[in-house]
Amino acid sequence: MPQQALPLTYLEAGEANGGTPMLVLHGLFGSARNWQTLARRFGETRRVYALDLRNHGGAPWAEGMSYPEMAADVLRFLDDRGFARATIVGHSMGGKVAMALALAHPDRVERLVVADIAPVAYTHTHAPYVAAMKAAKLEGVTRRPEVEAQLAEAVPEAPLRSFLMQNLVLENGVFSWRINLDSIGANMEELIGFPDFGGARYEGPALFIGGGASDYIRPEHHDAIRRYFPKAEIRMIEGVGHWLHAERPAEFASMVEGFI
Fold it and tell me: Which ranges carry the AB hydrolase-1 domain (predicted)?
């Protein structure tokens, strides 16, 4: 049974100018803070809200993490602020949330930008990262490098370890993870999948931006993209991986700005 839509925490940038606001949705293990710099840039021409999705950042925790549930959280954010429509930018998991919102409520999405993800089920899993974070001994630890060292075997890539470590917080002298690892782990199959929206289509403008060195948007995914998003423009940033907005922020931002 679907859970009640949750109130999401957020960061904001820019000034309301009467135009359509932009919502930015982060990926798995991320948070609104990952998008602060780009939100400020996009905020030069509009009001921008970078959201913490459920079980991430400062947002409430919940057992369910289906894409319809997470899209309902974003819809509540729009409703609570009286926004009739918004431009939605989503990366990875956030891109799937953005697509789910556009397919379920196309009238609420003015333009859609999806970064390095397609409306398909993937075979890879992030379960080993969840397991490593849950297994890390935090009690009695006084320094962040001690925790990071415990992740090194399961997560040998230093940039990815640093990204995951952004979720480690120190409160009252005690380290803890600020993401709901139990729910993320329990919902991993749903998170790497994508719901069947049947004959639903989003007929509005859509831009899909892929990393040339990533395997998340490949030619074999184009049919699935265009089945749901017939007006989709698919562009690539060559030589970058899945975190294309962090590796080439200026190029990514220019593509988005040229589209919106």
Answer: 23-253
Which positions of the chain have pLDDT values less than 70? 1-3
Known active-site residue 31 = no
Residue 56 falls in the annotated catalytic set: no
Catalytic residue from among 91, 221, 242, 245: 242
pLDDT tens digits, one per residue of 27-75: 999 999 999 999 999 999 999 999 999 999 999 999 999 999 999 999 9
Same domain, 181 and 240: no
**What's the predicted TM-score (pTM) here?**
0.95
Is residue 92 among the annotated active site residues? Answer: yes
CA nearest to 246, candidates 35, 32, 50: 35
Residue 159 sits in the same domain as residue 61: no
Question: What is the distance of C-alpha 5 from the center of its chain?
Answer: 17
Where b means 16+ CB within 10 Å and e means fewer, 218-233 reads: eeebeeebeebbeebe
Instruction: Say which of 80, 182, 215, 223 is annotated catalytic.
Output: 182
